[in-house]
């Protein structure tokens, strides 16, 4: 695996992690605001 491929994989992982985090925060916020 070249350094370029590794850099792209890291970038993809960060994007996926941020999307998952956004979904989790939205879910928690919805439960909190609506009182479950």
From TrEMBL:
The keyword Transmembrane applies. InterPro entries: CytC_ox_assmbl_put. Keywords: Membrane, Transmembrane, Transmembrane helix. It comes from the Bacteria. The chain crosses the membrane at residues 12-33. This is Uncharacterized protein. It comes from Tepidimonas charontis.
């Amino acid at each position: 695996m070249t350094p370029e491929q590794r850099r792209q994989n890291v970038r993809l992982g960060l994007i996926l992690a941020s999307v998952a985090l956004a979904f989790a925060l939205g879910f928690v916020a919805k439960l909190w605001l609506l009182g479950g």
